[in-house]
Specification:
This protein has 115 residues and is an all-alpha fold. It is 64% helix and 0% strand. Residues 1-100 form the Homeobox protein SIX1 N-terminal SD domain.
């Protein structure tokens, strides 16, 4: 609910207050919430670690793929000191492919068939 409302700081405080139970912290919804908090705090190393360490359900893939790509785009923009264009984003996607944990292996084709 906190995640859907966009209240990421409260979500972070809630996650911090959870008891030290391994099964609880390994639950997919908790890992997804931790990934959201890491992204919004700019802690991309933690985000990547979380996304690469657990095989997420297919219904969560789109949201987590979006976080993965946005984080890499933001890092690249910070390094270059300017916004990325379409080619820059393509290069980032090629350099940092989606991990198998949040991707079913289906390639996305951006080519159009000429008739």
């Amino acid at each position: 609910v906190l995640q859907q409302a966009g209240n990421i700081e409260r979500l972070g405080r809630f996650l911090w207050s959870l008891p030290a139970c391994e099964r609880l912290h390994a639950h997919e919804s908790v890992l997804k919430a931790k990934a959201m908090v890491a992204f919004h705090r700019g802690n991309f190393k933690e985000l990547y670690r979380l996304l690469e360490s657990h095989n997420f359900s297919a219904h969560n893939h789109a949201k987590l793929q979006n976080l993965w790509l946005k984080a890499h785009y933001m890092e690249a923009e910070r390094l270059r000191g300017r916004p990325l264009g379409a080619v820059g984003k393509y290069r980032v996607r090629r350099k940092f492919p989606l991990p198998r944990t949040i991707w079913d292996g289906e390639e996305t084709s951006y080519c159009f068939k000429v008739s």
